[in-house]
Amino acid sequence: MGFAKEFKDFALKGNLADIAIGFVMGAAFIKVTSSFINGMVMPLVGMIKGKDFSDWRYVLKPAEIAADGTEKVAEVAIKYGEFLTVTLEFIIVAFFMFLLVKFVNKMKRKEEAAPSVPPAPSKEEILLSEIRDLLKSK
User: Fold this and answer.
1) Does a structural domain hold residue 126?
2) Of 20, 23, 53, 90, whose CB is crowded by the most CB atoms within 10 A?
3) Are 42 and 53 in contact (CB under 8 A)?
4) What residues contact 68, with CB distance under 8 A and at least 6 apart?
């Protein structure tokens, strides 16, 4: 019974919804970043070698072609272009996540820094302080 109530409280307080929204937003952000990297950045970088950046590779063993033109043995290559593309994508995502966390922390500090006005003393506290002051004066 306690576990079910605890789970219900967790799910209904918004924590689960916040996690789901964060996950969906993260997945969408990855798509946007991938599109930006693959569609805008990599073609510019690819112009350095004259071919698509993801095609950059170091061939260890070229493919063997049969007499009929079909590939007999596949090429063995180190595909460092794909690795560099994914690494650049990771760095951009990490940078924007850093900026987002920094912004959220800054907003939290502003909320914490706002001084709260102490509540006015109750009638009993006012009466007690008057009595205390009268006793001190005697």
Assistant:
1) no
2) 53
3) yes
4) none
Residue 61 inside a domain? The answer is yes
Q: Are 37 and 81 in contact (CB under 8 A)?
A: no
**Pick from 51, 28, 45: nearest CA to 87:** 45
Residue 123 within a domain = no
**Rounded to an integer, what distance in angstroms lies between the CA atom of residue 82 and that of residue 80?**
5
Structural domain contains residue 128? no
**Cα angle at 7 between 4 and 9, to 5 degrees?**
110
Cβ-contact 60, 78 below 8 angstroms = yes
Residue of 29, 75, 80, 30 lying closest to 56 (CA atoms): 80
pLDDT tens track, the chain, 138 positions: 577 887 777 666 666 677 777 788 888 888 888 888 878 877 787 777 677 777 788 999 888 888 888 888 888 999 888 888 888 888 888 888 888 888 888 887 877 766 677 788 888 888 888 888 888 886
Model's pTM, two decimal places?
0.54
DSSP three-state, residue 11: helix
